[in-house]
Amino acid sequence: MASHEMHEHDVVVVGAGGAGLRAAIEASATGARVAIISKTLLGKAHTVMAEGGIAAALANVDGRDDWRVHFADTMRGGQYVNNWRMAEIHAKESPDRVRELEAWGAVFDRTPDGRILQRQFGGHRYPRLAHVGDRTGLELIRTLQDRGVHQGMDVFMEHTVLAVLKDGDRAVGVFGYDRERGSFHVFRAGAVVLATGGIGRAYKITSNSWDCTGDGHSLGYHAGAELADMEFIQFHPTGMVWPPSVCGILVTEGVRGEGGVLRNREGRRFMFDSIPQAYRAQTADTEEEGWRYTQGDKNARRPPELLTRDHVARCIVREIKEGRGSPHGGVFLDISWIRERLPNGEEHIRRKLPSMYHQFKALADIEITREPMEVGPTTHYIMGGIRVDAETQMSAVPGLFACGECAAGINGANRLGGNSLSDLIVFGKRAGEHAAKFAREHSAGKVDDAQVAEAARWALEPFEHGGEGENPYQVQTALQDLMQDRVGIVRTEEDMLQALEGIEALRKRAERARVAGNRQYNPAWHTALDLRSLLTVAEAIARSALERKESRGAQFREDHAGKDPAWGKLTVLVRKGPGGEVEIRRAPIPEMPPDLKQIIEEMQ
């Protein structure tokens, strides 16, 4: 058996973004010995790219807001296939988690009387997003890291986890390796928390960081947990489209929240052309009313640019396909026009959107205070993930917890902007708390040497293929092209069947991935090992999307263009079968209690 270093902890947290840090902080606060394993350097997690704000019904800007409105907005945005209990917990607990961040030192933007300022975002009825300019995720990570380093947890940076280790049905640790040195590590623990983020690197055009390869989804799946809602991939409507070197980089929804508008090449605000019935009563009829909403007029309704992300993305695709797109294959997002309305317009833009100003100036030589940006949809977020218990965040595998983007439930068919950051801190806290409780109440399990040996054997296999093997970079690129073309914003059965054939062919190629050199920092080896996660999530997405024969939220089937009421009561689940095959099943969504139904009816 390959040599490895052994570590002993009560709780091991895989992932050092917002969810992982919050879980580790909470577990440490109980006295548990905690390890946090980060694929990147600490502070480089993809959470820092969440720019616009944290959604929480603080009611600092509009006193009409409360948890019930937030709950109803989240359920409506998710097309009512959300886990209603998770949506309820999230809406109720988000304000306390944000105030906690403030107490820990987060420096939020302020109202004139000193309270946390909140901005408008798509799908939210009232201004609800607490923010730090357009660098909110960075401030969240900074605050949690400052808090976490004083808790006494052990931090393992630039380590990748390859397998969850089990004693019978229970998770008892993880196996991974040091990316710099190539050495293997076994982390024995009473409980494991997966908080690894998203899957964006399965697609060609994405806002996600290089490390978002679906590791947590794959680890949970191969350990025996179920994946839910994998068909629902959020394509953020506004990513950069030019120059090609920065294609896909996120353009925050905060631009639209501050008054930015979407126009086609004819200069027309096309979002007024298509307003869904469910949002018509809450959406402005005129440009003038939309502008007043962004400036805080409580009697105005939100502009159509602040409709849900799935709808805005499809409208942009429509304009591009029908020949009304921008020169580089997107549409125009214009914030510069507010100079006509505000005497200090340029300074206002630079103050409210400092990162966007710098991003476009440095990367595209665009002065956003004077000219429009070119934007288009980019793979941004997956609503699907490991199916967890709403109260504890534990999966079907005892001792294995999940939170953040790699867990499913709260968002349903579509996520509202800003809900991701409050999701991280609400359910990160719960995952850490209950993981520590599980570890206290159960004796330490036994690590199976055979499982460790098998994981090490698989990890070293790419070095044995020599010159006859496949280039792992080429396999990954082929997968990204396939998913972008066949399982993207608009889907058909024919495309997805072709995708599944292609994924199977790529899996065979990945098994022959070749790596030269040694185990010390070897990017080709890392890429070869990432392929397992990427192929796992790609197949789960395609099979789930094929199974759901309707269009709902982020799932748009051109061959099943309408919503089917029967599918509105079902969740698609994916699990690993006894022979290693992918098993798909449909599960009924539990009935919502009458009091929550009444809230939704009142908020129509």
Shape: globular
- The proportion of strand residues reads 15-25%
Poorly predicted spans:
none
Number of strands: 18
Q: Which structural class should the secondary elements be placed in?
A: alpha+beta
- CA radius of gyration is 23 Å
Helical element count? 17
Helix content: 25-40%
Average per-residue pLDDT, rounded, comes to 95
Terminal CA distance reads: 61 Å
Largest sheet: 7 strands, mixed
Description:
This protein is α+β, with helices and mostly antiparallel strands. It is built from 17 helices and 18 strands. Strands 1, 2, 6, 7, 8, 9 and 16 form a seven-stranded mixed beta sheet that branches. A four-stranded antiparallel beta sheet has the order 15-10-17-18, covered by helices on one side. Strand 17 and strand 18 form a beta hairpin. The longest helix has 25 residues. The mean pLDDT is 95.
